[in-house]
TrEMBL record:
Top-level taxon: Eukaryota
Segment forming the signal sequence: 1-23
Example of a GO biological process term: cellular response to lipopolysaccharide
Name this protein carries in UniProt: Ig-like domain-containing protein
Segments traversing the membrane: 291-311
Length: 315
């Protein structure tokens, strides 16, 4: 072998070798960035790593994971790839952004699809120029059980619908069961279970929140919404929807319900029920007494008539 071949083999060996301590390796880099990334189960996590440069041929990169899914540090990908086949990351859930907005311009952000519980942990991106680590990125991935939806704004004494959309699969997939909880994760109390069971709140019998809660979705069409009527100030809280899809698969979504600061402000992420109630309240408030309206109109007419008579008299 020529000297260049030996150098190449040594480089490949060093790139594949897993460090004993990723903290020590990153500390040897000229620059170290730390990011915290949160992702809900089943969603996509973006693990950032980039070196803006027009001379990408100068750099090498390696992604390593330190998670409970592997007993030891696991090399996810290196760049440039060793072969055409190695351009595809291990597993179908990991991807790069290719092209002029991706690795060609130093954007080595890693996309992890269909996030699972054991994906939580630390990921490191090491960028090398020659034999020097010029930059290290430490990404701490936290996997949340629930996807956080946009907050729901509502008005006092109105009706609101809390959304819980999901992908409905046809065929032999069993109909999911849905449970709604009131309160933050880990501290919430069950307020509804659908389909109802004898030992849990149901959509037809008495339930918490003074019987003001009912299931209003359609599980066959991917809709597990919850309707709350006659809202009061005590209803401001976190609401959590958990769907049991079978085969140990679970979908969780949570949102916070709050009241609008201004009585006439627009309600977002709710249904037409709110708008109808708002219009009704507005009519009640602005309608007033018919007698008051008539007196006001007559007063204006009398004032105009007196002014006209005075002008004619002066002429």
């Amino acid at each position: 072998m020529t000297q260049s071949h030996w150098i190449l083999l040594f480089f490949l060996f060093k790139m594949k070798e897993a460090p004993k301590c990723h903290g020590e390796l990153l500390n040897s880099c000229e620059k170290v960035n730390t990011h915290e990334v949160s992702a809900a189960l089943g969603k996509t996590a973006k693990l950032p790593c980039s070196v803006p440069s027009t001379e990408m041929c100068r750099y090498r990169m390696k992604w390593v994971s330190y998670t409970s899914a592997s007993a030891k540090p696991y090399t996810l990908q290196i760049w440039p790839p060793l072969s055409r086949q190695s351009q595809h990351l291990h597993g179908e859930r990991l991807t790069f952004l290719w092209g002029e907005e991706g690795v060609e311009v130093g954007n080595w952000t890693l996309s992890l699809r269909d996030v699972r519980k054991n994906d939580s942990g630390t990921y490191t991106c090491q960028v090398w120029s020659g034999w020097q680590c010029v930059m290290g990125t430490r990404v701490i991935l936290k996997v949340k059980e629930c996807e956080v939806l946009n907050p729901i704004a509502a008005l006092h004494k109105t009706t609101v619908i809390l959304p819980c959309p999901f992908t409905s699969y046809q065929g032999n997939t069993p109909t999911p069961e849905v449970s709604w909880f009131l309160g933050p994760e880990g501290q919430g109390s069950l307020i509804l279970h659908h389909p109802p069971t004898p030992s849990s709140p149901n959509s037809s019998g008495p339930i918490p929140l003074q019987g003001r809660v009912r299931f209003s979705g359609d599980l066959n069409s991917g809709n597990a919404t919850l309707t709350i009527s006659e809202l009061n100030l005590n209803d401001t809280d976190w609401y959590r929807c958990i769907l049991h899809m079978g085969e140990n698969r679970k979908i969780c979504k949570e949102m916070r319900l709050h009241f609008s600061d201004l009585p006439g402000s627009e309600v977002t992420l709710t249904t037409g029920t709110i708008n109808v109630s708002m219009k009704a309240n507005a009519n009640e408030e602005t309608g007033g007494s018919p007698a008051v309206v008539v007196v006001s109109v007559l007063s204006v007419c009398v004032a105009v008539a007196v002014a006209g008579a005075y002008i004619r008299y002066r002429k």
